[in-house]
Amino acid sequence: MKSRLLGGLAALLLAVVGAILLFVYVQGAAARAQEGLEPVNVLVVTERVPLGTKISDLAGKVKTEALPKSAVPEGALVTLDGQDGKVTSAGLEPGEQLLAARLVDPRELVPGTVPVPDGLEEVTLLLSPERLLGGRLEAGDTVTVYSSFDSGDQPSTGILFHDVLITAVQKAPSQTKNSSGSGSSEPAVEMPTGSAFITFARSDAEASKLIYSAEFGQLWLAKQTDTTAKTDPPLTTFGGLY
Which of 70, 99, 119, 176 measures 20 to 30 Å from 55, CA to CA? Predict the structure, then answer.
């Protein structure tokens, strides 16, 4: 009788210990599973996004969505803050998480160009080297545009625009010439071919003035710096030159 009672108590004790161990194990497994399912807010693409889309245009094509932490790759973005001026480096599809690696400086996407500011359009003019700092201008530079007209008895030169953004420059390849003739042993000198296509970002009305000046007058570009003083001088004529 006594041995049966002790056996029953031992069995009951083992059952209680087993139940406790099972409960602890289940709780630990649930905690581990919950850790992987911890929700994280990320940006998810809601509609197809073409290659080269600007951040300003991307804002309406993504939304914030909570996803399990284990399903969120490194570099997934929570917000577009701090991404100003960038563009998408690839086409994006709906449901795709937006990764920081998919947003790049536009010059990395299309070397030699910069994006056109909202509201402006591009116009391209062919200019000779002396009119564009000997061909040293590059995409992204800001210039002052001067126009000269030989009209009637009073030729004149004036400032057409300040703060003109150059969005692209297409230069002709250099030509190599010997300084003392083709038979000379002296080193070759790189000579400019004489022209480059310069693309400007302007409003439609200002683009019209650029085209008119290039058609019926002459244009000169001066590169601006951060400290360039911008004034509004009168037209320069021979009578007012000295």
Answer: 70
Q: Which domains does the chain have, with CATH numbers?
A: 39-106 (3.90.1210.10), 121-237 (no CATH)
Nearest to 201, CA basis, from 136, 137, 119: 119
Dist. CA 178–CA 140, nearest whole Å: 34
Q: How far apart are CA 75 and CA 90, in angstroms?
A: 16
Digit-coded pLDDT (tens) for 54-79: 888 888 899 998 888 888 889 899 99
With left for phi above 0 and alpha for psi between -120 and 50, is residue 85 left, alpha or beta? left
Report yes or no on whether pTM surpasses 0.85: no
Burial class, 161, CB count within 10 angstroms (exposed 0-12 / middle 13-18 / buried 19+): middle
- How far does Cα 35 stand from its chain's mean position? 37
Helix (H) or strand (E) holding 143: strand 142-149
pLDDT in tens, 22-61: 666 666 655 555 555 688 899 999 999 887 888 888 888 9
Instruction: For residue 75, give both structure tokens.
Output: 């570099």
Report phi then psi at 241, rounded to 5: -75, -35
Distance, in Å, from the CA atom of 216 to the CA atom of 227, rounded to the nearest integer, reads 32
Q: Six-digit token pair at 194?
A: 């004489």
